[in-house]
Amino acid sequence: MGLAEAIAHAVPVDVGPRRVPVAPLALLVANKLYAAASQIRPHDLEDACRAMETYECEGTRRFDVDYNRNPELTYETAGAFLAGFDSAAMMSVEAAQLVDAAIESLGRNPRLGDRYDRGEARLALVLAFGRGLRAGIQGR
Q: Helix (H, G, I), strand (E, B), or coil: what is residue 117?
């Protein structure tokens, strides 16, 4: 899921004397969440959460989120919301639906419950990404 989108929206990054195309972070998060739902690699959920925690920390985009319209968001989850919103602009509706289904599945994952370290915080990030993804798809 998402390879075509990652290639189409690749961002050039300087690595030494070369420029290397790299998938945008928002799409990488979407892919990590999709993979985390399959529970094949346990580190995918942690990778996605770390990226969502730091997404758009620099600049003002987190301050531009309409918190009145999205009262469930906090400054800490706004980056996840923005990552979901940004990924929706780069992926097909079908791919977005697959990621949304994966997020729904993750919402029932016991690792995101209050019995696990940072489980509730991770769940808030995953759900905020889903809200952003759906808002981005609806905004098309």
A: coil
